[in-house]
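Data availability (excerpt). All sequences and predicted token strings are deposited with the supplementary files. A representative entry, Energy-dependent translational throttle protein EttA, is shown inline so that the format can be inspected without opening the archive.
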Amino acid sequence: MRVVFAEDLEYSLGARDLLEGVSLELYHGDRLALVGANGSGKTTLLRLLSGELEPVRGRVYKPEGIYLELLEQDPRFDPEDTVESVLKRGFVRLERLEVELERLEANLADPEVYHRWEELHERFEALGGYKRRSNYESVLKGLRFEGREGERVAVLSGGEARRLALGALLLSGADALLLDEPTNHLDLEMVDWLVGFLESYGGATITISHDRNFLDRVTRRVAWLRRGKLRLYEGNYSAFRAQRAAQEEQEAREYANWLKEKQRREGILEQARRWAPSSAKHARRMHSLEARMEQFLQEAPPELEGPDAAVRMHFPIESPGPERVLEATHLRKGFAGRKLFDIEKLLVSRGERIAVIGPNGAGKSTLVKVLLGQLPSDDPAGRIRTGPGVRVGYYDQKLSGFDPELTLFETLYRMLGEKAHAALGAWMFPYEAQFKQVGNLSGGERARLALLSLSLQQANLLVLDEPTNHLDLQTVEALEQALLAYEGTLLLISHDLFFLDRLATRTWHLRGGQFDDYPAPPGEYLERRKVMVLPELARPAEPPAPKPQPRREKSRWHLERERERLEATITELEAQLRALHAEANQTGLSPQDYARIAAQEAEIHQQLEALYARWGELADV
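Structure token line:
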């Protein structure tokens, strides 16, 4: 079923043509990645598709009743809203579809009515109509709002509000989800849960993200927006990169061969022109060659497009520093009565590349701040010592440390003097943008300013807290290349697994007050620990049981709906069983833990026995 069709869209921003003749068609089940440099118009295209913006030319066509939901970068809620009211808002749309299905069911003998019912039923099922309750519980659990349903949204932090907006979008009953950086403010486990949720979603998705691992897992086509034009590629992001590399190589080879042939023909034509006056035969040959040359030029391949301008990052150091870069003992920290970590001893050696991972709120940034001396250890015996000659460069995810009243140029002038303009230009700040106040910069501009400042510090220990946030894929890849060439020691906090696996050789994992130190990249560590699994689905408030049969005989459609609801509940309970089995296989469990797990398993088995029995009855209908 077609969800949306965009034809020849044009859109301008001031004097700049942002989109030029962009066309796109989207069907239920499509999984599209939208990629391009910051400022290329990706978010603008999503807003045009959703109807928030109107194109200068072209049209966006959506069939009647089709709904697209856009994830806002800065969501706004009514202060009186609660977590529950926001999340359940989309249920109204699914309930309307259900009412319409029941209305049509009364006249299914009519072929036209049946065709309409069949289309609507397929759409209702794809959008999660039968799984509203289990999806709601899953979102609560997966985005960590469980037990907080009655909280007012006014008390949520910015990151929590963004996660709530994502949850509301997932439950919206929309035919297409327009996901603009959906992994912002999600930790690795939340990202993994989101991948699983999107796999079961039957509508279409368009995803903008700087997380390459996420894009590879949730997309099957790539739309590349570049210089106002949109090009489509089959496969995920990694496949797109490989195709582009091969395509660029082929285009360069074809263009080089054409230039060589052009030079050969020009030489022959030049010689013919010198001989033309000598005879009529030579004159006719010259005219023939000129005609063929004109045709040859008309068939010329398009000139190679130069690469998009990109930041060329470099983090130079004067000295790699001592062998023992950082030593710490008796590091302990808690918050609101909850232990974050209790670490007896840590040693960071020269040249190590350490990834710090764990759920949001586990204490990753806190641990880094304790190591840097910005926060004290709760243990009075805590000690931190850096080796002689260690220079620390710290990238704070809050991008603090700059005077918001100063312009970009004034900020850099204090660091570099007359070289400020050249440095800002090299870091992709156009001349006119260099006079913007720091407080008015976008997230991507502030991130580039912070990295530029870091590159001037000659630091041989770089501590980077979420450096890829707010950066487009091109800039993330430039940062990755710069850090691969960096000769100092790295300490990285990030939820971008692709980025970490490319750079890190050691992993620190914080979770539930526990600290693990593993001598390998995070991908290998997470595979070993089997952390990257879907969080167990929330348990139903009441044990599910077969619904009592009404006195009147149910229609076949109602019986099918009941069977599908039973299957969804059975799937949910089986997922809980798998999670309990995984928990039972962990080391360090107490006898009380094993007793709790055994009791929960017995309860779930009892519920499943009743559900299997009812499902068997319906399977024969």
